[in-house]
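hey so i finally got around to running the thing on that chain from the lab meeting. sorry it took forever, my laptop kept dying and i had to restart like 3 times. anyway pasting the input first so we r on the same page abt which one it is
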Amino acid sequence: MHMKRLALITLTLLAAACGGLDSGGGDGGVGFGKGGGAAPRPPSATIVLVHGMGGFRTLLGVDYFYGVPESWRAQGANVVVLSMTPLQTIEDRAGQIKAALDPLPGPFIFVAHSQGGLDARYLVSKLGYGPRTKAVVTIATPHHGTPIADIGLGIIPGPAVSVLNSLLGLMGWSIDDAREMTTTNMENVFNPSVTDAPGVLYWSYSGKADPLALNGDGFLQPAFDLTWGILDSQKIVSDGLVPEASAHWGTFRGVLAADHLEEVGQPLGVTPAFDHATFYSELLQALHDAGL
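ok and heres what got predicted. didnt touch it at all, straight out
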C-alpha cells in the first residue's frame, strides 16, 4: 500500500508541474476514425485493455488507461480491464490473461500498451486465442526490442540480476520480462516464434516525444530525461523508452505526440501535446468502422 500511495503522489506532483489536471489541446498527431466530432460507435466485440510492465488496472482509483474504461463504456462498448503481475515474463502474463478471459464468451479486441502488446500477441499466437480474437491493437509496444533493456541489463552484473530476481520472486515478480525485451531476444527469439494468427487484425501505434516538444513531438516528462537522452545519443527517435520504429507491427496506424506515459493519458490526464481523450474516442470509432 505504501508503494501505491507513493506512486499516486508522484503522478499528482507531475500533474501539478504540468499545470493542471485537464487534457491538453493538441491533436495527437494523427486522425484515426470517421467520427467527425459525433459520438463514436463502439465495435461489437469485447475490448480488453492490457497494461504494460509495472502497470496496474487501477491505482487508488486511477485507471492505468486514464479515463478510458469509463468513457468507452459510456459510449456503449463492452470493456474488460485486466490486472497482471507488474513484473513478470510475457508467457506468465499471457497465461494470466487467458485465465481471466476463459470464462468470458468473446470475441475479443486487445488494446495493449507497451509490454501488454507482447502479452497479447503471445496469448493469440501460442495459447489458442486466435479463433477468439478479432484484433490486437498495440500502443508503443517494443516489438523489435529497446536498447534501454540492452543497456540496463548490461550494466547490472549477472549475480546482481539473480539476487534481484530472488527478491522480486518473494512478491511473485521477475526481472526476466526486461530481459525478454532486449533487441536480440525480440528479433531472434520472440518474433520468429510468436507469429501472427490468421484472420486477426494487427494494428500498431508508436509514440514520439522530446524535452522541448519540437517538430510535432510530444512533451517529454522529466522522468524520461535519462532514457530519452540515451536513445537520442544514438539518433533513435523514441517516446522516452521505446524507439518509434520498434513499435511498428502489422498495419502501422500512426505516431502519437506523446511520451510513454502520456500515451495512456498519464499523469492524471495531463498530456500537453496529445489529446488522449480524442485519440481513444477515435480509436473506438475506427474499430467499429473496421467491422469489429
